[in-house]
Amino acid sequence: MKDLLDKYICRIEGHGYLKLSYEHAKVQLVVDEGERLFEKLLIGRPYSDAPFITARICGVCPTAHTLASISALENAFGINVNKDIETLRKVLLAGQIIQSHALHIFFLAAPDYIGLDNALELADKKPEVFKIALSLKEIGDDIVRTIGGRQVHPVTPTVGGFTNKFDKKVLQDLRKRVEGNMHFALEALDLVGKFKYPNFEHETQNFALTNWGTYAFLNGKITSNKGLKTDVQNYELNIKEKVLEYSSAKHATHNKESFMVGSLSRVNLQADKLNPKAKKAVHHFKGISFPSSNPYHINLAQAVETVHFMEEVVQCLDTLINGRALILKSPYKVKASSAAGAIEAPRGTLYHYYEIDAKGIIKDCDIITPTVQNLEDIEKSAEYILENTKDLPEKERYHLLEMLVRAYDPCITCSVH
Asked: What's the confidence (pLDDT) of residue 11?
């Protein structure tokens, strides 16, 4: 489309811009970073390298890639880890989500709602908000560093368990720090709950992992609000990637239709399974209820999840502290096999797939990131907004589009993995 205008987007992770036509309500989200071909880099390498190499796909969500990779490899080798390992991994992944949500809510999205031009003004003009942001980011870092060995690119989780032991005193101290910072998560939720969100309802498919009885994020079945519920091993039957001429990132669809993954999809599908403080909160937002079809409410869903995962960490640590001595290794044998694994990354469901030969060498690899799954939906939502704002000035219409893209929290680095 020759009449499309190029408009770069600020305050997102990575580089991308919108090609858009105000007159025809057409939008293309162009990712213009080069492909990095991690899937091909892994072929020919030992399976044990995969969790560490794929963590380098992203500096914002490396823990998610590590755990998704481990999940796929454990499914391939038929490893069923014990509750101690699973619970520690929940703590680790929850810490990752808290880290990422804090960064996005306060430094990327919030300036649109609290009267700031950019995140650099936060410390000077809104010091009380900056304190909340910094405290939540620090406690997320603290959780990941304590369990993962460092706050970026974790080193302790491995296929079959963890590489080191965890003293219960260390876990007790971490629990106290998390509990002591809970009020910051509640203050963040109160703040974000009062944002004046644009009033746009755009019906779409919501996808997330779900489990019976719990708010799923470490494992579960692929579930949608349109009736889909299937095993992760069937991911390729339900999620199809396509290559586009105008972008270096693929787009994913389900039955040739766009869909949404991430915090809003998770809350929409599992609000009844949130932890108590978060569950109570979702019923007290003025004029907002879940499930919501307003994509701007992704910001609010992230704040809800921040409270939920702070609670989750405390509950998991209580279980580990009060139980027997932790067993953090599961025996297994390498064999020729293949399998997929999936976890809920901060931005949505993350899939890893590996084919391994009898010597443990990777023969094939497939990774589908949350942003790849959201890109088609971002474009559809953006076009819907343009269709319904023709009476507004172009400057206001574009600002709504920027806010929309930021709400989805795209990770460009992951999209060009």
From this structure: 83
